[in-house]
Amino acid sequence: MDAMGEKHVIYVRTLGGFTIKAGTRAITDSSNQSKKPWLLLEYLVIFQKKPISPSELIRIIWADDPGINPNSSLKTLIFRTRKLLGPLGISPQKLLVQKGGSYAWTQEYTTVIDIDEFEDICNKVLGQPLEDEEALSLCYQGLSLYKGDFLPKSEYEPWVIPIAAYYHSQYQKLVHKTIELLVKKQAYAKITSICEGAVRIEPFDETLRYHLVHSLFKDGHTSQALEEYKHTMNLFYNEFSISPSNDFKNLYRIIWNEAQGININLDSIQDALQEEGSKGAFYCEYSVFHDLFQLGRRAIERTGDSIYLCLLTITDTEKATPKLPFLTKAMKHLNTAVSTSLRCSDAYTRYSVCQYLILLPTITSEQAETVLNRICVSFRKLYNRKDLMVNYSLQPVLPRKRSS
What positions does the domain Bacterial transcriptional activator occupy (predicted)? Predict the structure, then answer.
């Protein structure tokens, strides 16, 4: 009971941070206080339905410190932890209870924990058939509860890891279920909102990023969709040395084609086609490069001019693909070297995690060699470590083979 005789319900947030709230008062682990009292408090609250023996608490709190005096250290820690609870306005001895030689979180006050509410929602949505509207309403409630991973400041504690992994998995399932329901309703603005929140928690989920790009496009935000696609491409290259799936790349082509629209005014078309602040060679997505390559093959049938296809590859001294973050840094420098060493009419694209492709039109083999050597020299000035190198190869583009 508080001073007015009112029985408190205690609310605990564990997803995205640790907060205990009683009435209008709260304590949170965002304060710069020592870790062990918070860890003890977290453990007692999460396992509130059972008394915890001193030996178990010592094993959890001092797993890596066998030199401590167990009894003395635990008593001191209990005192410090109860002191943390003071701002809640309830007697700390009533919250952190000692009984029969063990310790426990209070049973005198009702404690509502967000993971219990979250799990109940997930079980309803994922475990039984519901009408779409009821399921969607529950999904929204569940997603609003999941503000981040379970006890993030204790994420490396052995007992936290499996619990966090379980709730993270449930969150992923709930997000994808929500999107599935919203796709049926064609509620693209809502999908965008859900995905924008989800990628902050799950930044490398390609399906979420696909739906984010797709929903932006379907909701009429074409330029934002293209920007989000480019951001995703860079993210996957730089973090994992992989590119998104072919489905994702095909979505880009659809959006790009749709973005051209129908326009009979050549002046406005030229304005739309203008590059803003462009310098150096023309960088394009691989799908665009592919089309330019095909166009070049058609042109040389008629003109007889030469076009060279060039491949630049970054390797380590053993001719193997370098490891991150060295590769990420090197590829950025190689991009700069390529862009500044080519003519503005030359096109290039990223071909893989460690390669660029270049098209060099109206040029001889000797001239192409000179250009590629110039790129290598420029790269070496930007990246002066000797652990990586740029290798290149080139060959003339051949005309299309005519079907007989």
Answer: 113-256
| CA 200, chain centre distance (Å) | 6
Give CA 350 to chain center in angstroms: 21
User: What type of residue sits at position 293?
Assistant: F
Q: Which residues of the chain have pLDDT under 70?
A: 1-7, 31-33, 65-70, 239-243, 259-279, 401-404
Tell me the Cα Rg of the chain.
30
Per-residue pLDDT tens over the stretch 60-84: 888 776 666 667 888 899 999 999 9
Contact between 336 and 344 under an 8 Å Cβ cutoff? The reply is no
Cα 328 from Cα 326, distance rounded (Å): 6
Check: CB of residue 376 under 8 Å from CB of residue 310.
no
- Assess contact for 114 and 13: CB atoms under 8 A: yes
Contact 187, 211 (CB under 8 A): no
| 3-class state of residue 192 by DSSP | helix
The β-bridge relationship of strands 19-22 and 9-13 is antiparallel
Characterize the bridge pairing of strands 96-99 and 388-396. Answer: unpaired
Q: What is the pLDDT of residues 166-204, one digit of tens each?
A: 999 999 999 999 999 999 999 999 999 999 999 999 888
The predicted model scores a pTM of: 0.67
For strands 9-13 and 355-361, give the pairing: unpaired
d(CA 82, CA 101): 17
Domains of the chain: 1-182 (1.10.10.10), 186-257 (1.25.40.10), 284-396 (3.30.70.270)
Q: Which residues contact 212 (CB under 8 A, 6 or more apart)?
A: 191, 192, 195, 196, 199, 228
